[in-house]
Amino acid sequence: MTTPNARRALDDIPVYKPGKPAESDDLKLSSNENPYPPLPGVMEKAAAELARVNRYPDAGTVDLYAALSRAFDLPPERFAASTGSVAVLFSLLTAFCEQGDEIVYAWRSFEAYPIAADLTGARTIRVPLRPDATHDVEAMAAAVTERTRVVLICTPNNPTGPVVTHEELEQFVAAVPDDVIVVVDEAYTEFVRQDDAANGLALAADHPNVVVLRTFSKAFGLAGLRVGYAIAATDVAMTIRKAIAPFAVTDVAQAAAVASLDASEALGERVEAIVAERIRVLAALRDQGWDVPDSQANFVWLPLGDDALDFAAACDPVAVRPFAGDGVRVSIGDPEVNDRFLAVAAEWRS
Length: 350
Ligand code: PMP
Prior knowledge:
single chain; 350 residues; alpha/beta; Aspartate Aminotransferase, domain 2; seven-stranded mixed sheet; 14% strand; binds 4'-deoxy-4'-aminopyridoxal-5'-phosphate
Protein backbone atom coordinates (compact mmCIF):
# COMPACT_ATOMS: atom_id res chain seq x y z
CA MET A 1 0.00 0.00 0.00
CA THR A 2 1.40 3.41 -0.87
CA THR A 3 0.90 6.40 1.41
CA PRO A 4 0.98 10.08 0.48
CA ASN A 5 4.49 11.52 0.52
CA ALA A 6 5.19 14.78 2.34
CA ARG A 7 7.84 17.14 0.96
CA ARG A 8 11.34 16.00 1.82
CA ALA A 9 11.84 19.30 3.66
CA LEU A 10 9.66 17.86 6.41
CA ASP A 11 11.84 14.80 7.06
CA ASP A 12 14.11 16.46 9.61
CA ILE A 13 11.77 19.10 11.02
CA PRO A 14 11.67 18.96 14.81
CA VAL A 15 8.25 18.77 16.42
CA TYR A 16 7.58 21.88 18.55
CA LYS A 17 7.67 20.93 22.22
CA PRO A 18 5.26 23.06 24.21
CA GLY A 19 6.12 24.05 27.78
CA LYS A 20 5.32 21.33 30.30
CA PRO A 21 1.78 21.54 31.63
CA ALA A 22 1.56 22.06 35.40
CA GLU A 23 -0.89 20.98 38.10
CA SER A 24 -2.19 24.54 38.11
CA ASP A 25 -1.60 27.58 35.89
CA ASP A 26 0.36 29.46 38.56
CA LEU A 27 2.95 26.65 38.81
CA LYS A 28 3.66 26.85 35.07
CA LEU A 29 6.97 28.64 34.54
CA SER A 30 7.64 26.77 31.30
CA SER A 31 6.10 28.93 28.54
CA ASN A 32 7.01 32.56 29.29
CA GLU A 33 3.39 33.38 29.92
CA ASN A 34 2.17 36.43 31.79
CA PRO A 35 0.94 35.52 35.29
CA TYR A 36 -1.61 38.37 35.17
CA PRO A 37 -5.05 38.20 33.51
CA PRO A 38 -5.81 40.38 30.46
CA LEU A 39 -5.84 44.16 31.01
CA PRO A 40 -9.00 45.88 32.36
CA GLY A 41 -11.87 45.94 29.87
CA VAL A 42 -10.28 43.42 27.50
CA MET A 43 -12.33 40.38 28.48
CA GLU A 44 -15.61 42.32 28.16
CA LYS A 45 -14.73 43.46 24.63
CA ALA A 46 -13.69 39.92 23.64
CA ALA A 47 -16.79 38.39 25.23
CA ALA A 48 -19.05 40.72 23.24
CA GLU A 49 -17.52 39.32 20.05
CA LEU A 50 -18.07 35.75 21.23
CA ALA A 51 -21.82 36.26 20.81
CA ARG A 52 -21.36 36.58 17.04
CA VAL A 53 -18.91 33.79 16.27
CA ASN A 54 -21.42 32.34 13.80
CA ARG A 55 -19.99 35.06 11.52
CA TYR A 56 -16.56 35.01 9.91
CA PRO A 57 -14.19 37.62 11.22
CA ASP A 58 -13.33 40.88 9.49
CA ALA A 59 -10.99 39.54 6.81
CA GLY A 60 -9.22 42.87 6.53
CA THR A 61 -8.38 43.03 10.26
CA VAL A 62 -9.28 46.71 9.82
CA ASP A 63 -9.75 47.70 13.48
CA LEU A 64 -6.47 46.16 14.59
CA TYR A 65 -4.47 47.75 11.77
CA ALA A 66 -6.10 51.11 12.58
CA ALA A 67 -5.28 50.74 16.29
CA LEU A 68 -1.68 49.73 15.52
CA SER A 69 -1.43 52.65 13.11
CA ARG A 70 -2.47 55.03 15.92
CA ALA A 71 -0.19 53.35 18.47
CA PHE A 72 2.93 53.54 16.29
CA ASP A 73 2.02 56.57 14.17
CA LEU A 74 2.63 54.56 11.00
CA PRO A 75 0.27 53.83 8.09
CA PRO A 76 -1.87 50.65 8.50
CA GLU A 77 -0.18 49.22 5.39
CA ARG A 78 3.04 48.88 7.38
CA PHE A 79 1.57 46.03 9.49
CA ALA A 80 0.85 42.33 8.86
CA ALA A 81 -1.04 40.49 11.62
CA SER A 82 -1.76 36.83 12.17
CA THR A 83 -2.35 34.15 14.80
CA GLY A 84 0.67 35.06 16.91
CA SER A 85 4.00 36.46 15.79
CA VAL A 86 5.19 32.93 15.18
CA ALA A 87 2.51 32.58 12.48
CA VAL A 88 3.63 35.90 10.98
CA LEU A 89 7.16 34.49 10.84
CA PHE A 90 5.96 31.31 9.11
CA SER A 91 4.20 33.46 6.49
CA LEU A 92 7.20 35.76 6.05
CA LEU A 93 9.57 32.84 5.49
CA THR A 94 7.08 31.11 3.17
CA ALA A 95 6.81 34.31 1.15
CA PHE A 96 10.53 35.01 0.85
CA CYS A 97 12.40 31.68 1.01
CA GLU A 98 12.53 28.51 -1.02
CA GLN A 99 14.86 25.64 -1.82
CA GLY A 100 18.33 26.90 -2.66
CA ASP A 101 18.03 29.90 -0.35
CA GLU A 102 19.64 30.28 3.05
CA ILE A 103 18.22 31.46 6.39
CA VAL A 104 20.64 32.50 9.14
CA TYR A 105 19.81 32.54 12.84
CA ALA A 106 21.60 32.30 16.17
CA TRP A 107 21.52 29.12 18.20
CA ARG A 108 20.31 28.44 20.79
CA SER A 109 17.33 30.64 20.10
CA PHE A 110 13.54 30.33 19.80
CA GLU A 111 12.49 26.71 19.21
CA ALA A 112 10.03 27.65 16.46
CA TYR A 113 12.79 29.03 14.18
CA PRO A 114 14.06 25.63 12.97
CA ILE A 115 10.49 24.55 12.21
CA ALA A 116 9.52 27.71 10.35
CA ALA A 117 12.82 27.86 8.47
CA ASP A 118 13.08 24.18 7.53
CA LEU A 119 9.48 24.12 6.25
CA THR A 120 10.47 26.47 3.44
CA GLY A 121 13.01 23.95 2.09
CA ALA A 122 15.78 26.53 2.42
CA ARG A 123 19.12 25.66 4.02
CA THR A 124 19.51 26.98 7.55
CA ILE A 125 22.73 28.30 9.00
CA ARG A 126 22.90 28.32 12.79
CA VAL A 127 25.47 30.62 14.32
CA PRO A 128 26.38 29.67 17.91
CA LEU A 129 25.72 32.22 20.64
CA ARG A 130 28.78 33.74 22.33
CA PRO A 131 29.80 32.19 25.66
CA ASP A 132 27.81 34.91 27.48
CA ALA A 133 24.65 33.75 25.65
CA THR A 134 24.45 36.83 23.39
CA HIS A 135 24.11 36.87 19.60
CA ASP A 136 27.50 36.75 17.85
CA VAL A 137 26.48 39.42 15.34
CA GLU A 138 29.87 39.57 13.61
CA ALA A 139 29.81 35.81 13.00
CA MET A 140 26.20 36.12 11.80
CA ALA A 141 27.19 38.85 9.32
CA ALA A 142 30.05 36.64 8.14
CA ALA A 143 27.58 33.77 7.62
CA VAL A 144 25.52 35.81 5.12
CA THR A 145 26.12 34.70 1.51
CA GLU A 146 24.57 35.61 -1.82
CA ARG A 147 21.99 32.88 -1.13
CA THR A 148 20.86 34.38 2.18
CA ARG A 149 17.31 35.72 2.05
CA VAL A 150 16.47 36.16 5.72
CA VAL A 151 18.35 36.55 9.01
CA LEU A 152 16.49 36.08 12.31
CA ILE A 153 17.60 38.14 15.30
CA CYS A 154 15.87 37.42 18.59
CA THR A 155 16.26 40.28 21.07
CA PRO A 156 15.90 39.59 23.97
CA ASN A 157 16.92 36.08 23.02
CA ASN A 158 14.62 33.23 23.96
CA PRO A 159 15.70 31.16 25.93
CA THR A 160 18.88 32.85 27.22
CA GLY A 161 17.57 36.41 27.81
CA PRO A 162 20.22 38.96 26.70
CA VAL A 163 19.52 41.65 24.11
CA VAL A 164 21.47 42.59 21.01
CA THR A 165 22.69 46.17 21.48
CA HIS A 166 21.52 48.92 19.15
CA GLU A 167 25.04 49.53 17.94
CA GLU A 168 25.47 45.82 17.13
CA LEU A 169 22.19 45.72 15.23
CA GLU A 170 23.02 48.92 13.37
CA GLN A 171 26.39 47.53 12.30
CA PHE A 172 24.80 44.25 11.33
CA VAL A 173 22.17 45.91 9.14
CA ALA A 174 24.86 48.08 7.54
CA ALA A 175 26.96 44.98 6.81
CA VAL A 176 24.30 42.87 5.07
CA PRO A 177 23.00 43.49 1.54
CA ASP A 178 19.75 45.50 1.21
CA ASP A 179 17.88 42.55 -0.24
CA VAL A 180 18.43 40.37 2.82
CA ILE A 181 15.49 40.63 5.23
CA VAL A 182 16.59 41.18 8.82
CA VAL A 183 13.81 39.99 11.12
CA VAL A 184 14.11 41.53 14.57
CA ASP A 185 11.95 39.39 16.84
CA GLU A 186 10.97 41.66 19.72
CA ALA A 187 8.43 39.39 21.44
CA TYR A 188 9.70 40.49 24.87
CA THR A 189 10.45 44.14 24.10
CA GLU A 190 8.20 45.61 26.85
CA PHE A 191 10.38 43.96 29.52
CA VAL A 192 13.67 45.46 28.29
CA ARG A 193 15.34 47.95 30.66
CA GLN A 194 18.84 48.05 29.14
CA ASP A 195 19.54 51.53 27.75
CA ASP A 196 21.65 50.42 24.79
CA ALA A 197 19.26 47.64 23.68
CA ALA A 198 18.47 47.33 19.97
CA ASN A 199 15.47 49.32 18.73
CA GLY A 200 14.31 47.47 15.63
CA LEU A 201 11.65 50.08 14.82
CA ALA A 202 14.18 52.91 14.68
CA LEU A 203 16.24 50.92 12.17
CA ALA A 204 13.18 49.88 10.16
CA ALA A 205 12.49 53.57 9.55
CA ASP A 206 15.63 53.86 7.40
CA HIS A 207 16.03 50.28 6.19
CA PRO A 208 13.14 48.71 4.23
CA ASN A 209 14.72 45.26 4.70
CA VAL A 210 14.30 45.39 8.51
CA VAL A 211 11.12 43.68 9.78
CA VAL A 212 10.10 43.91 13.43
CA LEU A 213 7.96 41.18 15.02
CA ARG A 214 5.79 42.02 18.02
CA THR A 215 3.15 40.07 19.93
CA PHE A 216 0.19 40.45 22.28
CA SER A 217 1.11 37.10 23.91
CA LYS A 218 3.67 38.21 26.46
CA ALA A 219 3.38 41.64 28.13
CA PHE A 220 -0.29 42.03 27.11
CA GLY A 221 -1.14 38.57 28.43
CA LEU A 222 -3.15 37.35 25.42
CA ALA A 223 -1.13 34.21 24.58
CA GLY A 224 -4.26 32.09 24.29
CA LEU A 225 -5.94 34.39 21.78
CA ARG A 226 -3.03 34.33 19.30
CA VAL A 227 -2.34 37.80 17.90
CA GLY A 228 1.05 38.99 16.70
CA TYR A 229 2.21 41.27 13.91
CA ALA A 230 5.06 42.44 11.77
CA ILE A 231 6.01 46.07 11.24
CA ALA A 232 7.67 46.31 7.86
CA ALA A 233 8.08 48.41 4.73
CA THR A 234 4.72 48.54 2.93
CA ASP A 235 5.83 46.21 0.10
CA VAL A 236 7.18 43.66 2.55
CA ALA A 237 4.12 43.87 4.82
CA MET A 238 1.81 43.38 1.81
CA THR A 239 3.84 40.37 0.68
CA ILE A 240 3.63 38.82 4.16
CA ARG A 241 -0.14 39.46 4.20
CA LYS A 242 -0.48 37.52 0.91
CA ALA A 243 1.00 34.44 2.62
CA ILE A 244 -1.27 34.63 5.70
CA ALA A 245 -4.30 32.32 5.71
CA PRO A 246 -7.55 34.26 5.24
CA PHE A 247 -9.45 35.11 8.46
CA ALA A 248 -6.41 34.30 10.63
CA VAL A 249 -7.18 36.89 13.31
CA THR A 250 -10.63 36.24 14.78
CA ASP A 251 -12.92 39.12 15.79
CA VAL A 252 -12.62 37.94 19.41
CA ALA A 253 -8.83 38.21 19.21
CA GLN A 254 -8.98 41.48 17.29
CA ALA A 255 -11.32 43.09 19.87
CA ALA A 256 -9.05 41.93 22.70
CA ALA A 257 -5.92 43.25 20.99
CA VAL A 258 -7.49 46.65 20.24
CA ALA A 259 -8.82 46.93 23.82
CA SER A 260 -5.34 45.99 25.11
CA LEU A 261 -3.75 48.82 23.15
CA ASP A 262 -6.40 51.17 24.58
CA ALA A 263 -5.48 49.99 28.11
CA SER A 264 -1.75 50.54 27.68
CA GLU A 265 -1.59 52.60 30.89
CA ALA A 266 -2.47 49.57 33.02
CA LEU A 267 0.09 47.59 31.04
CA GLY A 268 2.98 49.63 32.43
CA GLU A 269 2.23 48.71 36.03
CA ARG A 270 2.11 44.98 35.33
CA VAL A 271 5.22 45.00 33.22
CA GLU A 272 7.05 46.88 36.01
CA ALA A 273 6.02 44.21 38.52
CA ILE A 274 7.35 41.45 36.25
CA VAL A 275 10.59 43.34 35.61
CA ALA A 276 11.03 43.87 39.38
CA GLU A 277 10.57 40.14 39.92
CA ARG A 278 13.07 39.34 37.17
CA ILE A 279 15.63 41.61 38.84
CA ARG A 280 14.94 39.99 42.22
CA VAL A 281 15.18 36.42 40.84
CA LEU A 282 18.42 37.15 38.92
CA ALA A 283 20.00 38.73 42.02
CA ALA A 284 18.92 35.81 44.21
CA LEU A 285 20.39 33.29 41.75
CA ARG A 286 23.68 35.20 41.63
CA ASP A 287 23.75 35.31 45.44
CA GLN A 288 23.39 31.54 45.36
CA GLY A 289 26.45 31.38 43.10
CA TRP A 290 24.77 30.77 39.73
CA ASP A 291 26.43 32.25 36.65
CA VAL A 292 23.30 33.43 34.81
CA PRO A 293 23.12 35.65 31.71
CA ASP A 294 21.58 39.09 32.07
CA SER A 295 18.01 38.47 30.99
CA GLN A 296 15.97 41.42 29.75
CA ALA A 297 12.85 39.29 29.25
CA ASN A 298 10.27 37.59 31.51
CA PHE A 299 12.44 34.52 32.08
CA VAL A 300 15.89 33.52 33.30
CA TRP A 301 18.34 30.94 31.95
CA LEU A 302 20.37 28.46 33.96
CA PRO A 303 23.22 27.03 31.86
CA LEU A 304 23.07 23.57 33.43
CA GLY A 305 24.45 21.55 30.53
CA ASP A 306 23.91 17.82 31.10
CA ASP A 307 22.04 18.48 34.34
CA ALA A 308 19.19 20.32 32.63
CA LEU A 309 16.67 17.46 32.72
CA ASP A 310 17.50 16.49 36.30
CA PHE A 311 17.13 20.06 37.50
CA ALA A 312 13.75 20.36 35.77
CA ALA A 313 12.63 17.15 37.49
CA ALA A 314 13.78 18.56 40.85
CA CYS A 315 11.57 21.64 40.31
CA ASP A 316 8.40 19.55 40.11
CA PRO A 317 5.55 20.47 40.71
CA VAL A 318 6.81 23.84 39.42
CA ALA A 319 7.05 23.31 35.64
CA VAL A 320 10.17 24.80 34.01
CA ARG A 321 11.59 24.38 30.52
CA PRO A 322 14.69 22.18 30.12
CA PHE A 323 16.72 21.96 26.91
CA ALA A 324 18.57 18.66 27.19
CA GLY A 325 22.35 19.05 27.42
CA ASP A 326 22.12 22.83 27.41
CA GLY A 327 20.16 24.61 30.12
CA VAL A 328 16.85 25.39 31.76
CA ARG A 329 14.60 28.39 31.10
CA VAL A 330 12.39 29.54 33.93
CA SER A 331 9.64 32.09 33.36
CA ILE A 332 8.91 34.82 35.89
CA GLY A 333 5.62 34.02 37.61
CA ASP A 334 3.93 35.02 40.84
CA PRO A 335 6.46 35.91 43.60
CA GLU A 336 5.51 32.85 45.73
CA VAL A 337 6.09 30.49 42.81
CA ASN A 338 9.37 32.24 41.92
CA ASP A 339 10.39 31.62 45.53
CA ARG A 340 9.61 27.92 45.18
CA PHE A 341 11.87 27.77 42.14
CA LEU A 342 14.59 29.74 43.98
CA ALA A 343 14.43 27.26 46.88
CA VAL A 344 15.13 24.39 44.46
CA ALA A 345 17.96 26.38 42.85
CA ALA A 346 19.53 27.02 46.29
CA GLU A 347 19.23 23.35 47.23
CA TRP A 348 20.83 22.34 43.93
CA ARG A 349 23.95 24.37 44.68
CA SER A 350 24.33 23.27 48.29
N1 PMP B 1 9.18 35.06 19.32
C1 PMP B 1 9.77 34.64 20.43
C2 PMP B 1 11.21 34.95 20.63
C3 PMP B 1 9.06 33.91 21.39
O1 PMP B 1 9.67 33.46 22.49
C4 PMP B 1 7.70 33.64 21.18
C5 PMP B 1 6.85 32.89 22.15
N2 PMP B 1 7.41 31.88 22.86
C6 PMP B 1 7.15 34.09 20.00
C7 PMP B 1 7.89 34.80 19.09
C8 PMP B 1 5.78 33.73 19.62
O2 PMP B 1 4.82 34.44 20.18
P1 PMP B 1 3.34 34.37 19.62
O3 PMP B 1 2.54 33.88 20.76
O4 PMP B 1 3.04 35.78 19.24
O5 PMP B 1 3.28 33.46 18.45
